[in-house]
Amino acid sequence: MTKLSTAGTSPAKDFQELQTRLAKVFESFSTLDASRTVLIVPSLSMDQEVLSGISGAHHYEERMLCYLMLLRMPRTRVIYVSSYPIPESIIDYYLHLLPGIPAQHARSRLTLFSCHDGSPISLTEKVLARPRLIERIRASIADQDFAYMICFNVTAQERSLAMRLNLPIYGCDPDLLHWGSKSGSRKIFREAGIDMPEGFEDVRSAGEIVDALAELKARRPNIKRAVVKLDEGFSGEGNAVFSYESAPEGPALTAWIESRLPDLAFEAKDMTWELFSEKLSSMGGIVEEFIEGDVKRSPSAQFRVDPLGRLEPISTHDQVLGGESGQVFLGCVFPADETYRLQIQESGRKAAHALAAKGVLGRFAIDFLSVKEGSEWRHYAIEINLRRGGTTHPFIMLEFLTEGQYDSATGTFVTPSGQSRCYYASDNVESEAYRGLLPADLIDIAALNCLHFDGASQQGVMFHLIGALSEFGKLGVLCIAPTHEKAEAYYRLTTEVLDRECRTV
CA-CA distance, 209 to 262, in Å (whole number)? Predict the structure, then answer.
């Protein structure tokens, strides 16, 4: 077993030394039957008050159940940690999706641990508070030299857990997290020479918001709206919109803006100006122009830097957004529109190179706002997500279910037989009528109505966030098909079936 010498060194330096083991681990993955152990810690290590605005947020730990698909490799072991025990029926649902591997064989290589703790703190914090659980996790790893962690996002807490377990993390060093904040994103875009909205970063007080909003108006006299964003907002829940309607000219503008700050239009349902300003003071934020346009899209490009230093584009998506001003992430469509998917991939690649040069590791996404001007699209870079976000789990499921690959030259996904595949995915299939449905009820409804993924045709429907269904009436769905139109048809069929089944009970 590899040991670390910690005498006279800092946690950050020790972690960097630990991370050097990743390259050796990944070099061994050239064959399907290479032995390895992957520890999944799906902790949303973010501001819990911001997360509280998301219905069923603690069940988002289940999104990373997509990594159970790693069990398709017969010598891979997976350890999955969660706040609540995950029902065996949900585990069984995922394992029966595995192509070419008996579910029983896969289950024998899966170890589940739970904190049995629903308190509103991050999963990693819960694990760190349970030294006996840490010992059980450590004891379940056969060979630490060929093991690593995967997390939703990597903060100082995940770094501490990695050091306790003596495991590297396939993810971004916490010392680089600033580049994934709203302020850090703007600095990367500026460095990479990518278009972005006019605005200001590192804003931390009401006075600085007022100054920024006033300066925006001076630079953009015809501006209608601006958006104020918390640096560590999630799925748009940390955003607020400011309207310049009826704004006065001249010296009176500053006082007018100041008087209207408490009336910001917050995306989060329970957000108040008092809480927002408190969060802004502690984490910082940005102020930028709200890009207007009759025809707008919200595409994103995803990239990966592996432990061997290789940077590659891995997907593009059009995001499905909602909320009062259309800034809350609801789902995504893969791949992005063919008229601009390669444009945003190329723009994103510039930012990805800047991030890789700073040492960023793992998967990350770059979000854009695209406006159609005549027959052309103009793309504005909006933010960088240095985490496994809402586009990660559907794409991983597509890869493992079909055994296909992404073609970065065309921006399409191709199966081994040469067929294209698209998907429509959502984390927010939600209805009061769905409350009370148990995982077994959903699986029964899916079976009776043929809502499943068909391995023979390599298309169909699969569900995630199943644990949120009974309490919150909410779940996620992934619809895979040869075309966008067919994928969306699967999605409509799924919601129609759920609505009908719930009416008949």
Answer: 12
